[in-house]
């Protein structure tokens, strides 16, 4: 006899065997018991959550000759015909390949005739969102007022594409993702029936890879059983089959990135490639790991959110000491970009290595998330013992005599502004590491109100720089002996001010070439074109 895949062999045949959808099962059973069966249903939800299986069970129970407490008896002729796939009362249609108007017109002709046996003729239209606009229009009237002996069950993974006119004619049921615990428990039950041994942590990892889909989890388990035929299944074997990496590799990679150790990160990637692991899955697992770190940072009772053991949550808590929430947000964003780039690259390894080297690089980006992550990293390094210069005045703990108040320094003039512009890159070297991180990407400008302008690339950097104005004033005052009035502006604000004061810059193309040549011959040193 031919082998039957696990997801087909253990497809639920009663409501009792449907897992994770108790709210839907209870409603449908009550409708059967009370005789309040509707004429049209819409089953929505991600793949592998039981939409088609539930539809078949519902079709079976409403045609069952002796239903028991809202469940099919499984013994009558109607139940056996449906289980063996020879019932003419249940018509399954794949809308992806039968999405034209003609296909729906055939259904409209067929529904006129009552079932040859049983009470109802049930049409199960899978992936209904794939129907063409014309097909949806052809279905409207039949769906609204079908014959009493016809029931429509529409199933879709993308309900947003179903027209509102169809949605309003159906009872909608949303199938939720199945929890990892429920999937793992059901996998254990199936393996006991098969007489196969497997570690519980291996089954939990399979359910995690299934991402809430029972069918995906059973397919992964089926693949593991085929590869390791006759052997006990453990978590390392599941990782080898699925191309995943060990948790220690994930933690080592995040440690390398947090400490800006690019060489260690590249070595980890080399080891992953040598073991034949899948890089796309590795990036997804890193991203999820960083998300878990962010959850532990943000929520006190993280175990209620994270679907993992307390031991792993404790490990994440230790990891939170190395990675701040700002860094986690920035890393998640960057790894998401790396994942997107890898999809369209012929050499995924290069994309991943370049992306990680950028994360480990001290080069500062001007976006707010990168700045916040860099500052959080520097503050943590200072806290952990990086040497910080302390001025003699602050280090001296002995009491000092009161000094006479200093004379006010003269106001800075335009020439002083120009001097600051010329030497700004040298001035930033006098800042502490956190302030230097902010002001390296800031430019210097001036305005009519006599204030020195710190031109920031965006609003986020402007807010960070505004908090450090007093530090800049002190350094400039000590260096130039003048009192500077300072304000922070964004690049866009400064450009708008220049346009308002000086007008739009002239376009070189508007100049008369003959005039320019003539002036150039008489005044060769004149700069008439900016």
**Estimated share of beta-strand residues:** 5-15%
Mean pLDDT: 81
CATH superfamily membership of the largest domain, which one?
P-loop containing nucleotide triphosphate hydrolases
CATH class category name of the largest domain: Alpha Beta
Classify the helix fraction into a percent range.
40-55%
User: Remind me, CATH topology of the largest domain?
Assistant: Rossmann fold
Architecture overview:
- By secondary structure, this protein is α/β, with parallel strands linked by helices.
- It has 4 domains: 6-175, Rossmann fold; 180-242, Orthogonal Bundle (Helicase, Ruva Protein, domain 3), CATH 1.10.8; 247-377, Zinc Finger, Delta Prime, domain 3 (Up-down Bundle); 414-502, DnaA, N-terminal domain (GMP Synthetase, Chain A, domain 3), CATH 3.30.300.
- It has 25 helices and 8 strands.
- The strands form 2 sheets. It has a 5-stranded parallel beta sheet with strand order 2-3-4-1-5, covered by helices on one side. It has a 3-stranded mixed beta sheet with strand order 6-7-8.
- Helix 9 packs parallel to helix 11 (235-242) and helix 16 packs antiparallel against helix 17.
- The longest helix is centred in the middle third of the chain and has 20 residues, at 279-298.
- The radius of gyration is 35 Å and the shape is elongated.
- Residues 388-400 have low confidence and may be disordered.
SSE layout and pairing:
Elements: H1 6-9, H2 22-34, E1 40-45, H3 51-63, H4 77-83, E2 90-94, H5 101-110, E3 121-126, H6 133-144, E4 150-156, H7 164-167, E5 171-175, H8 180-194, H9 200-210, H10 214-227, H11 235-242, H12 247-258, H13 262-274, H14 279-298, H15 310-319, H16 325-343, H17 348-360, H18 368-383, H19 392-395, H20 414-427, H21 433-439, E6 443-446, E7 452-456, H22 459-466, H23 469-480, E8 486-490, H24 491-502, H25 513-522
Parallel strand pairs: 1-4, 1-5, 2-3, 3-4, 7-8
Antiparallel strand pairs: 6-7
Helix pairs in contact: 2-3, 5-6, 8-9, 9-10, 9-11, 10-11, 12-13, 12-14, 13-17, 14-15, 14-16, 16-17, 16-18, 18-21
């Amino acid at each position: 006899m031919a082998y039957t895949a696990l997801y087909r062999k253990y497809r639920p045949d009663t409501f009792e065997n449907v897992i994770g959808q108790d709210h839907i099962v209870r409603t449908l059973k009550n409708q059967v018991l009370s005789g309040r069966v509707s004429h049209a249903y819409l089953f929505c939800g991600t793949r592998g959550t039981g939409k088609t299986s539930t539809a078949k069970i519902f079709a079976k129970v409403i045609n069952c000759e002796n239903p028991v407490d809202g469940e099919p008896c499984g013994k009558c002729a109607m139940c056996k015909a449906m289980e063996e796939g020879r019932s003419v009362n249940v018509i399954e249609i794949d809308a992806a390949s039968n999405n034209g108007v003609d296909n729906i017109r055939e259904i409209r002709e067929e529904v006129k005739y009552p079932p040859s046996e049983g009470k109802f003729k049930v049409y199960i239209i899978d992936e209904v969102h794939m129907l063409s606009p014309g097909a949806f229009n052809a279905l409207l009237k039949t769906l609204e007022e079908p014959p009493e002996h016809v029931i429509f069950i529409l199933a879709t993974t993308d309900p947003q594409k179903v027209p509102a006119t169809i949605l309003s004619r159906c009872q909608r049921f949303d199938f939720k993702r199945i929890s990892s615990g429920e999937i793992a428990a059901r996998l254990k039950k199936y393996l006991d029936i098969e007489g196969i041994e497997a570690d519980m942590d291996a089954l939990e990892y399979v359910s995690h890879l299934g991402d809430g889909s029972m069918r995906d989890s059973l397919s992964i388990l089926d693949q593991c059983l085929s590869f390791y035929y006759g052997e006990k299944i453990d978590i390392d074997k599941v990782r080898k089959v699925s191309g995943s990496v060990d948790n220690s590799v994930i933690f080592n990679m995040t440690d390398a990135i947090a400490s800006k150790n690019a060489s260690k990160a590249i070595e980890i990637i080399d080891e992953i490639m040598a073991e034949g692991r899948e890089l796309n899955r590795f990036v997804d697992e890193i991203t999820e790991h960083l998300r878990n770190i962010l959850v532990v940072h943000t929520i006190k009772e993280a175990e209620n959110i994270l679907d993992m053991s307390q031991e792993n949550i404790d490990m994440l808590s230790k990891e939170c000491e190395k990675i701040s929430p700002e860094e986690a947000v920035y890393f998640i964003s960057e790894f998401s970009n790396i994942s997107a780039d890898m999809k369209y690259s012929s050499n995924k390894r290069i994309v991943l290595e370049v992306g990680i080297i950028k994360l480990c690089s001290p080069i500062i980006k001007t976006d707010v998330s990168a700045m916040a992550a860099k500052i959080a990293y520097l503050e943590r390094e200072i806290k952990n013992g990086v040497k910080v210069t302390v001025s003699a005045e602050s280090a001296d703990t002995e009491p000092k005599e009161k000094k006479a108040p200093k004379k006010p320094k003269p106001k800075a003039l335009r020439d002083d502004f120009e001097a600051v512009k010329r030497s700004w890159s040298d001035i930033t070297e006098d800042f502490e590491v956190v302030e230097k991180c902010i002001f390296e990407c800031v430019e210097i400008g001036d305005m009519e109100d006599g204030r020195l302008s710190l031109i920031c690339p965006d609003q986020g950097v402007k807010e960070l720089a505004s908090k450090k104005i007093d530090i800049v004033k002190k350094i400039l005052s000590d260096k130039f002996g003048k009192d500077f009035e300072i304000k922070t502006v964004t690049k866009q604000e400064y450009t708008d001010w220049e346009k308002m004061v000086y007008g739009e810059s002239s376009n070189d193309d508007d100049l008369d070439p003959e005039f320019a040549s003539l002036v150039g011959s008489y005044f060769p040193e004149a700069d008439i074109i900016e």
